[in-house]
Amino acid sequence: MKVDSENIFAVAEYCLHSGDVESILASTQHARVLFENGRLDFVDKTAPRSVDETQFPERPLLVSPRQMPQRSLNTELGVQAFFHAVAHIEFVAIYLAWDLLYRFRGLPLQFYQDWVSVAIEEAEHFTMIREHLVAMGVDYGDYPAHKSLWTVAVDTADDLLMRLAFVPRYLEARGLDVTPPMIKKFNHLGDATSAAILQRILDDEVRHVELGSYWFKYVCRERGLNFEESYLQFIKERFSGPAKGGVLNKELRYKAGFSSVELAGLEHWADD
Fold it and tell me: Which residues in the chain show pLDDT less than 50?
């Protein structure tokens, strides 16, 4: 089942409130076909529903990050659990992209075109990882998953600038740091398939974070704010410290729109 509307906000609303994995994927594919053929309607017709009304599938079971077991990639179970966690991140990323364009109105057309393209790519990532899981004998929902990513979305539902700072430029940007070592790890283990999947995701995520940077700077200009000072202030007020796992990948973060001032501030924060 999928939404039959050609309006981007109607498609987004359906994806955020259906609570069904297959329907969300089918509706996102529906949007892709319309978008690629220039038939997607971007007219703002209705106000967004509350973020608290967003519906997630019954599975996987969502728990706190502290309840997630730690497993080694040297075991089959560990690889399954790892890719299930990645699948969940990509599934929530579909929600995050749809919610970003759905919740914040009155922006240039390019904003909505950019984020629908992100939703489409996140759905591709999820589908690719899910197929990888199925080949290993499990499916999405067979393991528990954590809910911290969406918590940040709920907390920033009333402020576009905070949403852009916290989601693409903090949480998603961390993937630019931690994914390259994981690619090396899987190559070292002789698992070229897993490494290639992670490389594809990494290549796309650089653009996603870059879009976050572009629109963060755009909103800062609109509000008369210095984007570097604002970014560092916002994340230090919201988070207790840098996201864990490896060092900053400066090369990829530069490509994704981070400035030398921001990177220096992040490094200094990590050393405090």
Answer: none
